[in-house]
Amino acid sequence: MPIEIKMPALSPTMEEGTLAKWLVKAGDTVKSGDIMAEIETDKATMEFEAVDEGVIIAIAVPEGSEGVKVGTVIATLAGEDEDASAVPVAETAKPAPTPKPAQAEPVEARTPTVAQSASTSSARAEVGKDGRIIASPLAKRIAEQKGIDLKAVKGSGPNGRIVKADVDGAQPGAAPVAAAAPSAAPAVTPDFGIPYEAEKLNNIRKVIARRLTEAKQTIPHIYLTVDVRLDALLKLRGELNQALEADGVKLSVNDLLIKALAKALIRVPKCNVSFAGDELRKYARADISVAVAAPSGLITPIIVDAATKGVAQISTEMKALADKAKAGKLQPHEYQGGTASLSNLGMFGIKQFDAVINPPQAMIMAVGAGEARPYVVDGALSVASVMSATGSFDHRAIDGADGAQLMQAFKDLIESPLGLVA
Amino acid sequence: MSDYDLIVLGSGPGGYVAAIRAAQLGLKTAIVERENLGGICLNWGCIPTKALLRSAEVFHQMKHAKDYGLVAEGISADLNAVVARSRGVAKQLNQGVTHLMKKNKITVFMGEGRLAAAPTAAGLGKLEVNGETLTAKHIIIATGARARDLPFAKADGNRVWTYRHAMTPKELPSKLLVIGSGAIGIEFASFYNDMGSEVTVVEMMDRIVPVEDADVSAFLEKALKKQGMTILTGAGVEKIDLSATGIKAAIKGKDGKVVTSEFSHVIVAVGIAPNTESIGLETLGIKAERGIIAIDGLGRTNVAGIWAIGDVTPGPWLAHKASHEGVIAAEAIAQALGNKDVHPHAMDKANIPGCTYCHPQIASVGLTEAKAKEAGYTVKAGTFPFIGNGKAIALGEAEGFIKTVFDAKTGELLGAHMIGAEVTELIQGYVVGKTLETTEAELMATVFPHPTLSEMMHESVLAAYGRAIHI
After folding, report:
1. Which position among A213, A395, A408, A411 bears the catalytic label?
2. Residue B387, domain CATH
3. Residue B301 to residue A114, Cβ atoms within 8 A
């Protein structure tokens, strides 16, 4: 039997991707672990390793193909003991069956439930290569009558086929999660005859557009700004860097701000939350998503449990993550998640700005440049290093006073920075 | 070595199919059978009765040879030879199952099995057979069912028969009473009627084959009466007394009057009872209601590692339903043991066909017209008669019809009901369509070969939408 190599789901939310580059060609022998291709997901470019061994009979999806649905056959292997030449190449042109819904099925025989209904696959609507949705005629007709978008429906039939039971439960007008977010672009952008060059959006840009539109349109933002004196923090940073020089660690101000935000969130847990429809998720840990400008667009690698990590460790991790982000090599678990975000535009001399919340998080801290400003100390005007920090909060989940408490805690931790290294 | 991945208790069409599917999936499998491999279906049910009915059919045709321009004189039936043929067919298939067990490397234990312990995280499940203890990670209960007795008419094999006695008669009943007009009762009534017995059928409900569409019941009653059968619906047998020459049955008729009549034999076909009394259900705490084991869509009982399929579970009590459940359970077990390539789905009971091999035959799937209306559907039903079909007329089988029931709103094929020659072979066309969830549009767009009986299926669909051609 020829083995079909399918477009992998490289992250839990991945639905399609771009086959950026093939590293093998028809006729090559691959073994388990060989890198076969580079695949660009919505956030990163990832290497795709071979699982099966054999000779590649055919490459079904050429490199550079965009929007390749997860589960689409991208190449075909002849099994180990097969004659590759004997296998009809045409097989590779077929649209792929569904991704295997393995983990979705209630297979644990140790915990049976009598009268529990059928196992259902959690496969998303199966869309063939030609865009055809795999659904029974009856399901199609009911969907049409009820005004259901079949693309939004999960198929529970064989190979993810959408059957009557799937559309019976669906709500009219239901749309896929992705499409549920208001469209990122206006329907038609008028052309005024101004010369322009059209650049196709890459996946990362599409995701940014979609998520930020969703955030601004669905989350009622509230913004709270404080001025924070940095002199003590800068002094501590100088001392720490001197002490850590031998270890090759050089802390940035941002590393310390990551720690400060994480500790502030632990002190004010009402701000370390997600608004999740009919429930509020209160996180037990502060994972900080740090905005990084990568060549392909904004991405937010995560420092997990930053409140309990030492600043040197945060610094080391952050450097590695930023390098990976810039190379487009972040793994999904390195940028998906996070309980709050930090965005710093100080290096560009930005004085103050309001950031857009990164859903499903409920807050993002935007920090501007630290600069020498006139500052009143003990009733007398003097000069101090000051930065402005603005927290954006999801007002559905966080009240203004709670947000203010977080800003207060953030300010205190920076102005009395020994708490960051304690 | 007695550590198995799976032990199947019972080797009927549910059990042996489950065992083969499990073995195909690489499970170390054993099967326990107390009597004959293949169970009732193959040894004492579906298959040998079909052999008997085939003899009756050929006999019937011989008697009507003249209708086909043929001469057959001095026709008679040799009951012993008819029964012997039926037993021969059963034996051949029984050997076939023995071969299948061997081929799939399934260990067969002949003896009564009893559950002793459920599989737990700590240890394997235990099953005792012939004083030996077998152990397994999973156990499937597939012990099937037997004929239900009437309290006042215990089957003795002499004058009072169950299906089992009726299958190996030593003599042809001169005057036969059949209690119950479900598939089993009506098949034997039809067989003995064709063979020359004087047959009376008593049914409690207001029509015979009460699970079928009302039109089918009415048509069958008329056809059987025409063949000389006496049919009493809305009637019940109150009492049976054995007499020197047979039995005396007190039958309460529709009008409430009790009439006592004499019969040479009686067949009790009032349903089935699950074989779950002595297999250790209570020991393991397996949930059952009146002996019927509760399961989920994949066959899991309330006790982890114990599964049940077929006639020990809620109906319909049909061999093909048991086999299908066997496959689902075997795949679910393989999945539980780590196989990622199987994706068992619970069966949709609305798509299980039923076939009754009386003469004329009955076949059906899904909702009857009445049940569809009860369920709230706006129904579009179409009927096409055998008399309008060229092949049926050429066969000399112009009796019967095909009826299809659609949801007027969505075009969903809700049910199909057939009566007439060979309909048991036709129904599968609708079952495939129903399983694939076709609507009337695909069925109308399907090309049916000419000249076949299947054209009536097409016409019936067209008729539901006022588009039948040959009527």
Report:
1. A395
2. 3.30.390.30
3. yes
